[in-house]
Amino acid sequence: MAHKRTRRELAAAFRWAARLDYHEGIANHFSAAVSDDGQEFLINTRGMHFSRAQASRLALVTTADRTSDPVAQNVDATAWILHSFIHRNVPRARCILHTHMPYTTALASLKDFEFLMLDQNACRFYDRIAYDRHYAGMALEPTEGERVASLLKDGKDILFLANHGVLVVADTIAQAFDELYYLEKAAQLQVIALSTGRELQLVEDETAALACKQWREYPEAAELHLAALMDILDIESADYIK
């Protein structure tokens, strides 16, 4: 099986997204580049539930015209538009995770909301979040793919999609999933804190920037996180590797 390790890690990410309730029906999409230029990538096929993801069932497609690729035609149209343009235009986006997970999406649906530096987990994302304030319906046109990809500039690797969801891009599957996990944890805390109606005690910018740097330099945290999750799947749901 070509790209065996990447396939297994991506399948594990799907399975855990389902376990953590980050998925939504058979919607939402994860992808991982397998070529050096990012033009060739793995992605879930249309109709595949995250909880049933398997390494061998992931589609290997390219960023070329979808209509000329019969494999890509078995990938959801909105998934191909968003993921192909981001993989093509954002070199650091080796892995792209797009979800409508509830707490992050709730915050993305608040008018002019910016992520609060409220706790240590939130500080991980200091100055790393871009915002798309203009929901324009489903991404079915190439121009929308180009527009969304263009928002991931200036080192931003988290994109809040207004009235829609979130995109996380990273160099590796482990890093992307770790970011997704802690983003939703921080968003959950913010929703809870905001619901109290009490004044919030925010972390100062200087301290938030320091904590973000510490997070990003913490050795092997993401890799160990994914390895632990795969160990659990190996015992409880080993068919993900098939």
Strand percentage lies at: 5-15%
> What overall geometry do the principal axes of the alpha carbons give?
globular
In CATH, the topology is named L-fuculose-1-phosphate Aldolase
How far apart are the first and last residues' alpha carbons, in Å?
10 Å
Number of domains: 1
Structure commentary:
The chain has a single domain (4-241), classed as Class II aldolase/adducin N-terminal domain (L-fuculose-1-phosphate Aldolase). Helix content is 42%, strand content 13%. It has helices spanning 4-19, 77-89, 102-108, 120-123, 142-150, 173-195, 205-217, 221-236; strands at 29-33, 40-43, 59-62, 95-99, 129-132, 158-161, 165-170. Helix 1 (4-19) packs across helix 8, helix 2 crosses helix 5 and helix 6 packs across helix 8 (221-236). The model has no long low-confidence stretch (mean pLDDT 94).
Characteristic key phrases:
242 residues; L-fuculose-1-phosphate Aldolase; globular; seven-stranded mixed beta sheet; alpha+beta
In short:
The protein is an alpha+beta fold and 242 residues long.
Protein topology:
Blueprint: H1 4-19, E1 29-33, E2 40-43, E3 59-62, H2 77-89, E4 95-99, H3 102-108, H4 120-123, E5 129-132, H5 142-150, E6 158-161, E7 165-170, H6 173-195, H7 205-217, H8 221-236
Parallel strand pairs: 5-6
Antiparallel strand pairs: 1-2, 1-4, 2-3, 4-7, 6-7
Helix pairs in contact: 1-8, 2-5, 3-6, 6-8
